[in-house]
Amino acid sequence: MAGMEFEYDEEGGTFYFFLLSFMALVLVPATYYLWGTGESKEDPEKSRRVCQCDPCKMKKQKLKSKEPINRLKRRAIKTGLLIGWALLAVVAYKASQVELDFAEFDPYNELQIDRGATSREIKKAYHKLSIIYHPDKDTGDSQRFMKITKAYKALTDEEARKNWEEYGNPDGPGATHFGIALPKWIVEKQNSVWVLGLYALVFMVVLPVVVTILGSRQGGTDTRHIEIHGTPLYFIFLHKTPNMMLKRVLMVLAASFEFNRQYNQEVVERPSDNEQIPRLMKNLPYLNEKNKERPLCYLYSIKARCLIHAHLSRLELPQNTLEPDKDYCLKKCLYLLNEMINIVAQLVTMAHAGRVSKMPRLSTVENIMKVSQMVVQALWDNKSSLLQLPHISEDQLRHFVTRKRNIRNIRQLVGMREDERRALLRTLADDEYTNVMNVCANLPYIEMDVKTEVIDEEDPTITAGSIVTVTVRLKRQNMAVLLNLEGKTEKPEKPEEIAAEEVEEEEEEKPPTEEQVAARKPKVWEKQKKKKGKAKTGKKKPVKPVVPLKKPMTATTLTPTGTPTASGDKEEPKDSNPSTPNGGVPHQRKGRHRASYHGSTNDDSDTDSAYSDSADELADQVKQQQQSDNNEEDDDDDWMKFQEEAKKENMLETKSKETHVVHCPYYPALKYEWWWLYVADKKNQLIISAPLQVCSLMSEEEIQLKFSAPYKPGIYHYTVMLRSDSYLDFDQSQNIKLDVKEAKKIESHPQWEISDDDEEKDADDEDGSESDISDYDESDAD
């Protein structure tokens, strides 16, 4: 390459192509993702199943009250996209009008002749055009004359013609020009300030703002939503009171610095609070406002506590003052409660490490989780969980517990027969009853399967201090499977009918007993005999255990005759023959002995021993080969298992946190079903594994909980707990039993135990051997 030259676009023509490509790369994906962000049409079938109670309608209207801002935002986005596409069209038009100054050199075109012209025609055309365009003529054009001369040379000179065919230029390869598709005014000195300002605006203002907005939209239960000043507060109170009661959890929650205007400028303080808060406190009997403990006695803490208690009591508040404050407070509560649970897990870990003296109890974590359920459903813990359903009031609950029935939760209500349920809810209208059933049909129905194992060890036995893995499989269904609304299950029958059918089936399957046979006979003495015989036969005879047949080995062995046989087959005696019973000597064997009688009598025994030795060696080799193959297969299985575990962990991290929507008409925001999963020791009130929040349970999920086994051998009984963060009385638990064995002792190998004397002796031996070698070399040299 002769050389390279860089040049900017003087006329700005190529800049249009660059701008056109950049705008297309931005506008196409932006239009795809942002144009369809408007309201989607609701499915009529889905809207029919949505709750239509008055609190849900009010919540929907409240959420829609923010729509004007969203509509304005969507309109601004669409307007910006339209302007961008209009600019793209203008730039495309400008680019189409740009005339390229680069044109391919064509000597035939310059001489105005055909490509099949002869040399005579070429000379004639050159002579004709040179007369017209010669610079000395009146019609002369120097540039045109140079092109004509260059074309004539390219067609008549062999070397020039070859250069033109290879490089497109009769003069051969020239300098390579690289054009930058930017106008030249960008690099001019007088415009440098504006260019630097544009770079600073894009990279120091626009880019951080976009990243911040995208990060805030991803939202989640992490410490990003927690003020840095609130975390030490939780550490102090949870360490101070390891066994924290539910009312105190509410007090600590209300004392969070998220509700203090000194740390959070979003908090609104109004002069009307001095009148409305004391009036509200009179209707809250469990407020405990006389507590003098700091910061529980501060004004912001008392106000937040009043708002939370009013929400749990479902009291109406002034719409323009306390109601917005309550909504803001409730939206922060779930993030704060999740942070409290994380701190409890940290304190448990620190207590095991000996860094803190007090360990939080299991009841503390359960009370924090229960507060989350209470906040979402706006219910106290001593209220019935049936109040989570629409149109159900406390006056109707007295009909749920009577002498005939005992309905205390939603599961029992769903398990009733349709006619009995409708009779129980006879005070509701048909549309109200349908609404109740639709809400029940969308509630979660969880099936939990638990498996305990030790994955990282070759021996699956649980030993002291080993890492125990609890694999929990969760299957989430709608409670409609119990209501037969989706046609998946049949209508549940009465327990009495089921029991009667089971008894009838058992009687049909059983053969007639001796008592039944004896009852048909009228003789008394025969009955007594039958009874006596029954007593004998009633005792079960000891059944001999069935010995399983051993699997035939695939290894081959050599028989004394030198023929290979499968070792799994039964070996026949040396002198046995199917035609000669009792091991009689066959005629062939006799002939063999007669033929070898005159020889050495030890030949047969030597050959038999040789055959047996070779057979044993072959069998040992086959066994070793099988063991090595099995070890390789086990290693492959372990590697595949570890890869699957890593994939599952990555899938859990990348899954969406949007699951089924929770029915919570009193909670001011949209809420999705999330669950807490952990292992606990209920007997000793201990937390065994840190609570794991499951945020992606749409239909099925597999979660692994890991913890260290106790250091003392024995049998331990733990409980795997699954608790909802949104619904009351939907918790599940399953007991697990751990048989912890004593840890295996590490065997000491003799080759590892090398004393200092042995090391010195080995060093002396090495020095002696080196001196001998040197002496030997010197003697050879001599």
From TrEMBL:
The chain crosses the membrane at residues 15-35, 193-214. GO terms for molecular function: protein transmembrane transporter activity; RNA binding. Residues 486-637, 746-782 are annotated as: Disordered. Residues 528-543, 587-596 have a biased composition (Basic residues). Residues 498-509, 754-782 have a biased composition (Acidic residues). Residues 544-566 have a biased composition (Low complexity). It is found in: Endoplasmic reticulum membrane. Keywords: Chaperone, Endoplasmic reticulum, Membrane, Protein transport, Transmembrane, Transmembrane helix, Transport. The keyword Membrane applies. Residues 106-168 form the J domain. Its main location: endoplasmic reticulum. It is a multi-pass membrane protein. It holds the Pfam family DnaJ. GO terms for biological process: post-translational protein targeting to endoplasmic reticulum membrane; SRP-dependent cotranslational protein targeting to membrane. Residues 487-497 have a biased composition (Basic and acidic residues). One of its GO terms (cellular component) is Sec62/Sec63 complex. Gene3D superfamilies: 5' to 3' exonuclease, C-terminal subdomain, C2 domain, DnaJ domain, Sec63 N-terminal domain-like domain. Coiled coil: none annotated. PANTHER family: SEC63 DOMAIN-CONTAINING, TRANSLOCATION PROTEIN SEC63 HOMOLOG. This is J domain-containing protein. It comes from Ridgeia piscesae.
